Amino acid sequence: MEEQRRKELEETLIGWAVEALGRWTGMSSPPASLPDRSAQWLSHYGRILSRDWHPDGRGERLLSILSLVKPPKVEAVQQVFVPARPLSLETILPDDDRQTSATDLWQAFVGEFGRLPEGEGRFETFIHLFRKYAWSVPCTYGEAGVSLYDEFKALAALMYASGGTEAPAEEFLLVGGDIPGIQDFVYTITSKGAAKGLRGRSFFLQLLGDAVVRALRRELGRLPETNVIYAAGGNFMLLVPAGSEAVLEEWQAGFNRSLLKEFEGDLYLALAWETLPSSVVGTSEFAAARERLGARVAAAKSRRFVEVVQRDGWSALFRPQGKGGLDYCHICQREPRPGEKLVAETTEAGEEVRKCGLCRSFEALARDIAYDPLWMVVAAADDAARQDSGWPRLLARLTGFAYRFEHDPPRVEDGEAAYIFNHTDLESVHGFRFLANVTPRIGAADRRWVQEHYPDLVVPPGERIKDFGLMARQSEGIQRVGVLRMDVDNLGLIFGRYLRGSMAQTSALSAALELFFAGHLNRICRDVAAQGEHDNSIYVIYAGGDDLFVVGSWDRMPILAERIRGDFAAYTGHNPHLTLSGGVTLEERKFPLYRAAERAGEAEGKAKQYTRDGCEKDAFCFLGQVVAWGEEWELLRETERSFSSLVDAGVPRSLLRVAQILHTQFIDTRRRALKAEREAGQEPTLRRLYWGRWVWMAAYSLTRLARGCPKEQKEEILKIQREWIEPGKRIHFLGLAARWAEYKLRGGEK
Ligand SMILES: [Zn+2]
Description:
Alpha-Beta Plaits, alpha+beta, globular, binds zinc ion
């Protein structure tokens, strides 16, 4: 695109957007406006979004895109509207009544608009500024769930992908990318001092995704960020000009060749594309194109490096043989490269660990990003960046971009782009990003605590991330680390059947999920950690897109999962078709990470298989047992609390043993009864009570326990006794509640 055309395009889009926001807020004299000569031009593109589109439309209020998610032929869910306010992680929940008046919204926007940089970077910064103020304002043409920002983004994407021509292109290319390999790359490392580098490794993959998108935008004619329909972690979708196939093929082959050389096959970019006729952009047929693209990306994943082999022959895949030496990095288990020296370090556990340069640089990255506020500066990589060491050198060589992180507002040179994380204040930056980066750094309070409780434990000085050993020791009760995995149920159905959205709706839904998992999750983690004895006991290993992986002191994990689920329900307006399932497993201080990741994944899988009373999923697996969120979870929590408070008040701990034994007997009785019912051809039901020896045992043991207790506790025990043998769900969670309470009470056990 010629420079002159690019300028006109930017002026047109900015002018229209500013006017549209002014119109919605009811304010006049906007600081920019749509040039008259451009109205026709823009309308051609607007009509791709909707036949009724016209430049001066105005919406009423923004229906949350999350309210549109429901299976076809099912009653509409309760509608939730997004309160008009600037985008901020202070609050993203719709039931929070902090609302900004239209006047204030407009004046704040105009103030920041006046401070936009001139020249290069102006349009990119405007994209972020407009997102901040128009994300909660409805679009001008009445498409449900689409904000004025989403509309602006779609218009800009279409215009750039058409090369800015007067008439829009008749077709585009939808590009999908994925960098699989998080399992191989992040979790297969050993657990020796692994906590330090874990977030660095997983974040490096996110950075790689960011840099790939940036490189593709550059290669395909300097496309702005509006052409990124979504990007979360290593997974992305772009709208690019038709006819870009050759450039994409060439770039992918070169990139994967470099990846193969650097990572010996552990990481791979699966890239695929699909022709997108302009006629489907604004309709639900877009979902079909998205599905075809998804199938192509999946196929590309199963043919790893085929494009490299086609060009370089099979020999490209033969890994360089190690020298078979005894020296290898204790973290990634790779032999040092020629000329590379491993560095020996001593962990808190007193083990000597030898580390390669790359693993050490991932540890530095994990420390670097554990800050709030945090800035990222990106520039085209020069020779110095390519000669750098560790991850910055890798990223520069692979993508041509140099990344760095700062903890104070950065001084930005020409050609650099700066971003702030988790804040939307655009002062001296080009944009903002959301990143789940809650990281437990060892503080003065931790050092005092270690000295007091574990005087033999050496915590080396300097800036350190808390290791799993200390997280386990600082748990309440039994010393374990909790590993939590959680994600949105039925994601494929949500995008494929429940929404079947247009391009703008798809982009809006992805952004809404990303805002929760990459952004709001930070607040949840900090709040839940702060309620514990140590306020830095939670470590986000990865969160974004629609899922999360968090490690921390075990006692915080069920509380964290409960809060995530509660906030997600509030965020979606309690939409019953948007639910989360997850699982927590408990690990001893030294555990193989890949096993822990697997076990937590299995627990999550069990929760997703849970069916009851015509419902499925929307459940949580804890200590090996699955509990549905809602009524079942409340019962469990209530029972656990009553156990804990009874034991705290002096009732013998044998209460917890009795509860577990009774539960086991109940399960046995029930299993036998269910078998008999099945054989007799009857429908089994969870709510029925199965009488057996356990009922008399319960009556006997609890009466005996109550006998020695003061009046108040005696009544509580007798209440429990009555509730246990009543038909109901409580008995099912008795054993789990007792085990939970017991773990919390097992003080100081190793
Ligand atoms: Zn290594």
